[in-house]
């Protein structure tokens, strides 16, 4: 399938502004993305804590609104990412933080029209049985899914690379959790970079799991930089995803090799927005 600019697919892109445009303060990135041609953006958790002040939340929301872009995705609070934490969904003892961030995320979604939440599962922690963590994760995911359903939103569950303590490493790992939950609005986040680095065959993932996929993200591998810097046929994989029925956004979630604007040379300006 060929897109309007001659590409092999016509899936819409959304710019992840927690990893792109980091040359700028967070609250200036939506405007920069719009200037670069994007009309859709996504973020990890955009605050320092699970419980930002009302003023912080308002400043973030206004930065998106004033830029004239659509917020397509938002992570729940994932803990201290710089220190290696990767989510609170399964973290026994931090239930209050998860609940607080869920409330904040839902409020932002209602204001900004976001309908997809990335619920990072959380690392295995010392002194707690994995089964206890998994029980808590199912409870948290069910609670969050019901809340999201109230505004017509989904949760997505993401396998990650680079964090040995994070238990969801392949698409099958995440889908096993989806099967246990049995909820239609909890789906797979297929980050093609993470899956490839962890050894998943991307063509097999696409064939088996596209019907369960709620969001897709891309970066080239190795390196996690822009398409064309590594070995993945990202255009080909996106073409196959679309042919298999995926019709959602593709999150651009790479570390630019060079400035963000220069790193976007692979994506024609007219393909960045809709």
Automatic annotation (TrEMBL):
Domain of life from the UniProt record: Bacteria
Organism expressing this protein natively: Amycolatopsis rubida
UniProt keyword Isomerase, yes or no: yes
The entry's keywords: Isomerase
Isomerase among keywords: yes
Family recorded in the similarity comment: Belongs to the hyi family.
Protein's UniProt name: TIM barrel protein
Domain Xylose isomerase-like TIM barrel: 31-267
InterPro entries: HyI-like, Sugar_Epim/Isomerase, Xyl_isomerase-like_sf, Xyl_isomerase-like_TIM-brl
